[in-house]
Amino acid sequence: MAFDPRRSMKVGVILPFSQREMGGETPRWNDLVAMARTAEAIGLDSIWISDHLLFRFEGQEPRGPWECWSLVSALAVATERVEIGTYVNCTSFRNPTVFAKMIDTVEEISGGRLIIGLGAGWHEPEYQAFGFPFDHRVSRFEEAIEIITRLLREGHVDFQGRYYQARDCELRPRGPRPAGPPIMVGSTRPRMLRLAARYADAWNGFAKRIDVLPSLNTSVDEACRDVGRDPATLARTAETHVRFPHLAPEGDEADLMGEPEELAEVLAPYAGHRLAHLQLRIRPDTVASIEAFAPALEALDRRLGHRAGG
Predict the structure, then answer these.
(1) Which of 179, 182, 250, 290 has its CA at a distance of 20 to 30 angstroms from the CA of residue 235?
(2) Nearest to residue 204, comparing CAs of 232, 239, 180, 231?
């Protein structure tokens, strides 16, 4: 399964989903709907929702997020065109057979607009708080992604593993795409990269600085060759950050900033690194910021010779 973009490099926005993440405020459902519809209106290709249960960092007040799949399901109804991606789902949080059922059901609700990001998880405090085992995360992920991909792509799996079992399990009825939505795996560690190369349609990395992309691409290429896959068949995606100083005067010094043409100039080179999709965190995470990005998106389309999605 290959990505079929309206742009040669799709551009999406990662929506805020937890306390104090929306310009210091907690995003409510009405805020998220407004941001999603604004993203759609200005011509962005996708919206993305992260998957966590609780953030606890030393020296900081705990921060709670909304549940990812509840939001994804609702946003599938609240929007019409944009793709909806998960950034990324922790396979530890849901039984893989039931999760595949959830995915294909929301795929049906969305009319075939899902992108399923999968990962092994990393934040131990939320595992402890919600009662999930934190050990052998990659081994658990390996079993989970095999079950999920086989159910989504083939509709059937018969699997007996150390952590999960799925005996003569079928996925019925099926959503609008015969092989289900595209699967994206986010990681840079060698074992996870090999699993991405074996099972995924796309790989995702963090590229706040564009100069990390060549080495990341090389690692992904090597993982593909290790499992006997043509590297050209695994789509590449990456996250970077954009900030509007007049809306958020303070922020990370590595954030990309500037007037629309300047932002287009610094974002355009990402397309030269085989990216099928660029996911943006636009600071502050508000409707106003997404609206402010509209002329930058138009300038990027002009620079790359793209036509706007829609």
Answers:
(1) 290
(2) 239
Give the C-alpha separation, 86 to 50, whole Å: 6
- The alpha-helical segments, DSSP class H, found in the chain are 29-42, 68-78, 96-110, 124-130, 137-154, 190-199, 213-226, 260-267, 287-304
Q: What is the pLDDT of residue 251?
A: 83
The answer to whether 65 touches 54, Cβ cutoff 8 Å, is: yes
Residue with token string 């600071």: 283
The region that residue 155 occupies, defined by phi over 0 for left and psi between -120 and 50 for alpha, beta otherwise, is left
Helix (H/G/I), strand (E/B), else coil: 117: strand
Q: Is residue 1, in this structure, part of any structural domain at all?
A: no
Task: Give yes or no for a contact between 241 and 274, defined as CB atoms under 8 angstroms apart.
Answer: no
Nearest Cα residue to 208 out of 246, 250, 244, 257 = 257
Residue located via tokens 């287009």: 264
Phi-psi category of residue 221: left, alpha or beta, with phi > 0 → left and psi -120 to 50 → alpha: alpha
Per-residue confidence (pLDDT) for residue 6, from 0 to 100: 61
Residue pointed to by tokens 């990659």: 138
Residue 41 maps to a domain: yes
Identify the CATH number of the domain in which residue 97 sits: 3.20.20.30
Below-70 pLDDT ranges, the chain:
1-6, 306-310
CA distance 150 to 162: 17
The whole-angstrom separation of Cα 191 and Cα 177 is 29
In a domain, 309, yes or no: no
Number of domains in the chain: 1
Domain that holds residue 235: 10-304
What's the CA angle centered on 248, arms 28 and 239, to 5 degrees? 75
Q: Which two tokens stand for residue 2?
A: 């290959």
d(CA 2, CA 196): 14
Q: What pLDDT score was predicted for residue 306?
A: 66
Q: What is the pTM of this model?
A: 0.95
In a domain, 160, yes or no: yes
